[in-house]
Each structure stands twice: as structure tokens, then as C-alpha cells.
Amino acid sequence: MAYPTAESREIAAPAEEVWGLVSDLPRMGEWSPENVGGTWDNGATGPAVGATLAGRNKNGFRRWSTTATVVACEPGRVFEIAVTTGKVPIANWRYEFEPTAEGCRVTESWQDHRSLFIKVTGRVLGNHDAAHARSEMAATLANLAGAVEKETRG
């Protein structure tokens, strides 16, 4: 079930194909406006429940690192990560995939887990409220659609 802060987009490709792009976390920087990628961590080599990724992010001149832990991993159906900074919970990002006549509908959703203290002190990294998350999700989904279309045409 998607979190309340969510964006959806129809993408002209099978759910399994789009899921493959989303779950390839080291490539997330290719479509996310804020994430710049990362590397699988602690022996992980790909998406699986419990796998972790050392992620890198940017917002303008600001840079920071996070850890993403895969918490849901059903090919073609759902992919979700829990993001932390150290042991501090930050947010969950969830992707759900539904087949459609032309491909699939992807719903990306976000749940903020930051404490008030972290929200206030984290402002140096930019405003990361629900409106910001929706904007980031819309851009990510548009970039995913563009990547799929490019691969289909190429």
C-alpha cells in the first residue's frame, strides 16, 4: 500500500522492465534529481530484502550520504527501501507497479520518519517536506519513462 505522499505515472513498458531499473539502486542517480547513486554494501550484489546500499545525494552545493536498506522486493510488483543516516531513520521510498494496457502504472511514495530535531537541523541540506518529495517523485518518474522510451527506441 502506497504512503500518503505519492505520485503515479503511466510508463509504456512492462512492469518487470521498469522494476528492474528502479531496483538497480546504484543507477538511481540516472533518474533521481537528488540521488547520485551509490554502491551495494555489506556483501550485497543486487536487490534483495535486507540488502544495503551506501547512497550519495546532492541538492545544489550540498552533499550527504545515506544507507538504503531494501525492505520489500517483489519483481514487477513492489520495491521499497528504508533510508537512514547512521542509525537515524530518515524515510521510506516505495515503488508499486500495476500492469496497464500500454505498459504499467508506477506509484512512487514516501513516508518521512525524521524527528523534529532532524527536520530542523537537516534544513542545511534543503527543505525536504512532502511538497519537495512530490516534486522529486514526479521528476524521477518522468526520467524513468524517458529512460525506458530511449531503451525501447534504441
Summarize this structure briefly:
The chain is α+β, with helices and mostly antiparallel strands and 154 residues long.
Provide a descriptive summary of the structure in words:
With 154 residues, this protein is an alpha+beta fold. Helices cover 25% and strands 43% of the residues. It has helices at 15-22, 116-121, 130-153; strands at residues 5-11, 35-41, 52-59, 62-74, 78-85, 88-100, 103-112. It has a single domain (5-153), classed as START domain (Alpha-D-Glucose-1,6-Bisphosphate, Chain A, domain 4, 2-Layer Sandwich), CATH 3.30.530.20. The chain is built from 3 helices and 7 strands; from the N terminus they run E-H-E-E-E-E-E-E-H-H. Strands 1-7-6-5-4-3-2 form a 7-stranded antiparallel β-sheet, covered by helices on one side.
